[in-house]
From TrEMBL:
SUPFAM superfamilies: alpha/beta-Hydrolases. This is Alpha/beta hydrolase. Keywords: Hydrolase. Residues 72-265 form the Alpha/beta hydrolase fold-3 domain. It comes from Paracoccus siganidrum.
Amino acid sequence: MIRDPQVLDFIARTEAAYPAEANHAGPAQNRRHYDAMCAAFRAPRPSGLAVEDRAIAGIPCRVYGARTPVFVLYLHGGGFVVGGLDSHDDICAEIADATGLQVVAADYRLAPEHRWPAPLQDAQAVWRAIDRPGVVAGDSAGGLLAAALCLSQRGARAPLGQVLVYPGLGGRGDAPSYSQNAEAPLLRASDIAAYHHALHGGDAPEDPLAAPLLVADLRGAAPAFIASADVDPLRDDARLYAERLREAGVPVRYRNEPELPHGYLRARRGSDRARRSFQAILAAIGSFAQGAG
């Protein structure tokens, strides 16, 4: 249940630009609606922040800030169907400004034109091309990508930490949040199914990294900070992944955000709840970058 007037206002503003039925439209129409919504919330970049678009390992990227000894790889959300360098531009700019770290946003390939594992291959290519220690962060679909990247890079090239924000992690849909929040604002259980079909077609994915929550052995994964939205079908993916990481001996901090829906990072300027969560996310990124884990 959401009673917070700031959050209710955020939901109304989002739905005015991005109606619920857009998730079941064709990809081109869905992207038009999503881009319009992102533009409505997009904040100016912090003054003086250098930003450059360039290809890294052949993948279009946007780089925020000058080179730093530790960088942040940011992987945007959008169900693997929508989103890009502009959709999360202000979020990435604020991360770079607040942490003092260089942020690299990767414009990975989208479904249904490019199905799994294309998005992960792009994220891996960018990660491997930057020969410095780094933290990987992502929201929603980008959270799944960040988790999958960490599982694929255990060992010498492991990230210093992973920051997952309301991630979908490949849960089977039988956890309580899928039924309790089946008709949640901004993301419904049926939307998740539609995005899954776009990414994988009608078949179950064979690659275990497509569902990090179901990977048998999580030992050696990067230390994690995981934030979930309480009013979100994906809430329990985050909770259960945090539990599984702990069981595997991986340091993890988990926080669930009451009265917040999926996509709340865009509410960080208008909602006290979202602002506090974003501050915790910034602190986690900074902590991992310092090696504090």
